[in-house]
Amino acid sequence: MADKRDYYEVLGIQKGASESEIKSAFRKMAMKYHPDRNPGDKEAEEKFKEINEAYGILSDPDKKSKYDRFGHAGVDPSAGFGGGAGFGGFEDIFDMFGGMFGGGFGGGGSSRRRNGPMKGRDLQQEVVISFEEAAFGIKKQIQLSKYVECDKCHGTGAAEGTSKRTCPTCNGTGEVRTTQRTPFGQFQSVTQCQQCGGSGQVVEKPCSECSGSGKVRKTVTISVDIPAGVDNESVISIRGQGEPGTNGGPNGDLYVVIRVRPHSLFKRDGQDLWLEIPISYAQAALGDDIVVPTLSEKVSYSIPAGTQPGTVFRLKGKGIKGLRTSRMGDLYVKVILEVPTKLNSEQKRKIKELGEILDNDNHGKKKSFSDKMKELFK
Length: 378
What we know:
By secondary structure, this protein is an alpha+beta fold.
C-alpha cells in the first residue's frame, strides 16, 4: 500500500475535483493507455489497471470520502481496523461474524457467493468524424478487438463431448471456508476457491480453441448510428457490445467516444454556428447583397449601408439541430473589413482624394473623437 501512487495524481487532477472532472480525466487517461492502443506494452497495461483502480475509488462518493480522509488505508480492505490487529480486513471480519451468527451480516452467507452471474467488461472506442457528419448524423462501421464467446465450445470452455463438473474443492459453492482462533473466540472466514476461480465448476477437458476460458479474442465490425447534433467528446453507449459475461452473466457495454474534426470556416458554440466574412470598404459604406455559406446551402443576405467592421448578423435556424430536440440553432455572421494591401499609384490617389472629402465632412464617431482630442490637448 505504501508504494501506491495518489489516486488524484494517477488521473492528473487536483484533490477536490468535481465528478465531471474525474470522469473526463479518466476517459482521457484510459484512451491513452488502453491495451488495444498499446499491444504488448506491459507498462501501459499496468498504468491502465492503475487508472481503473483510481477511477473505481474516486467515482464512488462513499469510497472517495473515505480516501480523502484516510488515504489508501481508508479504502484498502487489508488495512482492517486501524491497519491490523490480527484481522484480514473489513470483508473478512464480516465473513467471520457471519459464520458465527448464520451469516447475519449482509443478509446471509448465500448473498456473498462468488459464483453468481457476472456482467462482462465494458469497452471504450474512439471514433473520429467530420464537422458535417456531427451536424447531420451518420452510420459508421468501426473495427474493435475484443474477447467474444468461443464458437467451438459456445462459451462453456469444455472440449467437445465433455462438460463442466462440480468443483471438488468447494462442492460448487465457489467459496472455501476456513476456521481461525482469535482473542474473541473461533471465527470462520470465506475466500474464493482457487481451483475453480469462484465459479463452482471445473472443466474436465479444456476446449482447444479457448484453452478452457470460453472466450477468444477477435477483431469484429460494429455498426454505430451517430445521431445528428453530437459534439466533441459525446459518448454513445451500445448495450451488449462489450465482452462476454461469466457464469451466465450479460455482456458488457461499448462506449463510443466521438471526436469531431474542426471545420475550415465554421466555429461551433452548442447548437449555434459562427462565421467570419470579409467585406470591402465599398460594401460596408454603400451596402450590398452578399452570399453566406451555411452547412447545407448558400443564402443571400443584404448588409445595410454604413455597416461597421465587427458587426454581427444573425441567420435564424441555420445552425445545428439539438441532440435531444428538433430545435435548430442559429448562424451568427461577423463581417470583417478587408483592407487592400497592394495598391497602384492611381488607386492610392483616388483613395487619398476620397479620404480628404470624408475628412472635410468630419461626421459621426470620427467627429466626436476629434472633438475629444482637441479638448484633451487644449
